[in-house]
Amino acid sequence: MEYKDAFKYYNLFCIYLFVKAFGDTKPTRNGLKLNYRRLFLNNYPYFITVVTYQRNPILIQNIELLRQSFRYAKTKFSFDIEAIVILPDRFHLIINLDNPKEYPKIIGVIKSYFTKGCEPSYYEHLLQSHSRTQQHYKPVWQKRF
User: Fold this and answer.
1) For a surface tag, which of 70, 90, 92, 124 has the fewest beta carbons within 10 Å of its beta carbon?
2) Is residue 113 within 8 Å of 141, Cβ to Cβ?
3) Cβ neighbours of 73 (radius 10 Å)
4) Which residues are 34's β-sheet partners?
């Protein structure tokens, strides 16, 4: 087998692994849109990263509100925070859950509580896309995590 053929098969194999891991892709104007799949396994910790919209550095300035957001989520769901790192524009979290399918809901509650309590002066200077404006998003968090 020639080098070019081996490289071609390697690329096809990588695409196969990508599609298996992330699902089918859908073409969009900006390239490929991923069809995200989440893995829900019992008795495993989850590493999650949540990023602010346009990496706006507002978390340290609003650290007490972020703490309240986590406390509120703990009243709604059963989970343990094993480790957390809070940076100005994102946080990394390792959590253990009783029900792994709840982790998207937990992050949603944290983001929602923080957004509702955050003063507009921290984010009103950020421009949003037309679709985000139509969906009434506040420019506090990126859509996915």
Assistant:
1) 124
2) no
3) 22
4) 25
